[in-house]
Amino acid sequence: MNILTFDIEDWWAYEYYKLGNKVDWLPRLNDYLERILDILEVHGYKATFFILGEMARCAPDVVRKIDRAGHHIGSHSNSHTFLYKFDYAGAEEDTRVGIDSIEQLIGRKITAYRAPAFSISDENKYIFEILHKYGIEIDSSVFPANRSFGGFNNFQTDRPAIVEYNGIRIKEYPIPMVTLCGKSVAYSGGGYFRLFPYGMIRSFVREHDYVMTYFHMKDFDNKQERRYKGWEREPAAIRYFKTYYGLKGSFGKFQKLVKDFEFISLQEADNLFDWQKQRIINI
Ligand SMILES: [Zn+2]
């Protein structure tokens, strides 16, 4: 199964992206969002949109538009603060407000979650307890490799599994990996999707029977202003490369991908999945 997901966030809110005029980001997000919603409609696909609580409050029309088109909506935290920056109480508050803001707006219970920048790791796995407390049943926050802002490299699988922690259970849909030069890397979203040529991505998708994509409007926006600056212990040259490489061709690659393969939302995938047969991972 190929699962289509998008993370919807106000990237201007992060120090690194504070460029140009604040009023600029929403029309740019809207531009790609509209195009994507049209493409999904043409193909008859539903997708999952993980949305920030902040978006529900500052741009409610964006959330309503996604909801009206019948897509599955999940939480992407409240403020996009990387979870390892919080203590338990801070992480709980951010999770609670993030979920609540979207539920208030769309009038339905939110049961799916993705952490900002996949920032759940072995050190802050108590987040699963918090997610369970606020009604999350499905999570897609595990990036089972090393990563700049998170990564759960000792999570034992890159396939859907049941996470068991402190007596609670959550269905986990991790980001799938490929091994290149002995290193585990992703291919189905973010910088990796921008980096790899389309032919390579197509063969990775063909080879795998579980594909979890993760796209951001920012990853398609070639007109965005560029900043050459280090961030969170990363030198400027590396950060620049990771943030902007491949922006020019990425929307074209996305269009090819949804033409070449069939996609479903996380909700549809979850309805099809036989959870009785899946692995339980104790963390
Ligand atoms: Zn995000």
UniProtKB/TrEMBL annotation:
Xref: Pfam families: DUF3473 (PF11959), Polysacc_deac_1 (PF01522)
Signal peptide: none
NodB homology domain boundaries: 17-283
InterPro entries: DUF3473, Glyco_hydro/deAcase_b/a-brl, NODB_dom, Polysacc_deacetylase_ArnD, PuuE_HpPgdA-like
Protein name, entry field: Polysaccharide deacetylase family protein
Source organism of the structure: Butyricimonas hominis
